[in-house]
Amino acid sequence: MKEKLYTIPLNDAINAGDECPFCHIERNIEHDLMDYVLGSGSSYMESNVRDLTDEAGFCREHIRKMYDYGNTLGNAWILKTHYRKVINEMNDVFKKYSPAKISFKEKLAGSPDIKNPVKKWTDKRDKSCYICKEFDKTYDRYMETFFILFKEDDEFRKKVMDGKGFCLHHFGDLCEYGEIHLSDRQKEEYYPKLFELMKNNMERLYEDISWLIEKFEYQNKDKDWKNSRDAVGRGMQKLRGSYPADPPYMMKK
Ligand SMILES: [Zn+2]
Ligand SMILES: [Zn+2]
Description:
Layout: H1 4-15, H2 21-38, H3 47-56, H4 60-69, H5 72-96, H6 104-109, H7 117-127, H8 130-152, H9 154-161, H10 168-181, H11 184-215, H12 231-240
Helix pairs in contact: 1-2, 1-8, 2-8, 3-5, 8-9, 8-10, 10-11, 11-12
One zinc ion is lined by residues 58-59, 61-62, 129, 131-132.
């Protein structure tokens, strides 16, 4: 069964006991992709890989991570040919530019619906990212596998329900994918349980953060930290996903 491919990393992610198993998977895939694109295998010197990075480029988050990764020469090679691609596209957009027709109403409102073709193009560029694109390709399969295991594997379902829940970002996706992968009867059974799981875990984070603040009070200085020492990083992850407390992922020497 094809899903086998995704079952092991998904189980590993659940077993890791982080604030969100999908953040865990996302981070692993992201690191693998950075090793692939920029790592010691030097894929960036292969024209088929560079064609892909030239075309897609990298989003703000991933371009920052590529910088932190630390392969200066590799980054320069990737940027050089990507620049050529971007400059050609830009020249094309400039050549085709003609002033937009703006209605009186739009002038009054002070902001036209994007009518400027240069802005349209820079928006498209902002969203385009090789790493995001490659991750998206497997994300559907992880979501699908999650629901297969959740429905059929009692142990997996128990681990999820006894676990720490998900970050809000990935929980939203999970709810969306659940609409496709669960029957009406299963939705009636599982959605309330998953909502309960999220409620309890959001409250848990709230308590961890609250106790962290109280620990700064003089009279609490000798009291136990409980689970609050790393509450800011985990609290941020729960709200927005990813691992804010992670050090930069760097090239292996
Ligand atoms: Zn997440
Ligand atoms: Zn990206």
